[in-house]
Amino acid sequence: MAAAVLAATALDAKVFTLRPGGGKGGAAVAADALGGAAIADEPVKVNGLDATLSVKLLRTNFEECVATLLRAFPKAKFAANKVSLLMEVKRPDGSIERLFLVRLGGVYPVMQFSMEFPKGLPKNPKWPEDIPRPGGAEPTSTIELPRKKTVCVAFKTSLPADRVAEDVAADLLSAGWREFGKGTFMRDDPQEILIVAARTDDKGVTRGSIVRRPLAE
Predict the structure, then answer these.
(1) Which tens digits make up the pLDDT trace of 57-79?
(2) Count: domains in the chain
(3) Where are the beta strands (DSSP E) in 59-216?
(4) Among 26, 56, 155, 215, which one is most buried in terms of CB atoms within 10 A?
(5) Contact 17, 66 (CB under 8 A)
(6) Quick one: 147 and 187 in the same domain?
């Protein structure tokens, strides 16, 4: 779940197409616009700001969900690819609601994540203390799920992607972690997993994410 939420805060501009809507926006709460079955409400910190993450399973297919949101919230900002959509709505009171849909398939073809913030997200988030920092990496967004003891950071750096992985591996291996496959690390006491992913674009900018969480909850 944390990985999906992180994707909603750190979209790659080459994968997604951002576009603002036009016309008049609706007054409904975006999180309720598609119905669905609620499965979780989780306290989170996004860039240090307290919020609540709500998760729903939707019976409507992904394309219909997108069309419904475009009609209901034409003033919102949208970003989408074939398997996910991010929508951000600014409310009249200045609060911001963010909706993230992920295509699943099956009986419930879409999973919806939603968060509401009383104001815009803080800029210049701090790098999480519990996550190793690759050389030159600057955080673009952070998410903490206190109940699940999960920490996520999205970042950018001028280092190539392979150097990012090497920097993280050096820190973790020296601290007693073991590597299991490319970018995946585990340790036994306490039992934790850390996953790092990064990609360098054609301009030489590397964007990536690191997620650290317990192996068992």
Answers:
(1) 999 999 999 999 999 999 899 98
(2) 2
(3) 77-80, 84-90, 96-103, 110-117, 138-145, 150-157, 178-179, 184-188, 191-200, 206-214
(4) 155
(5) no
(6) yes
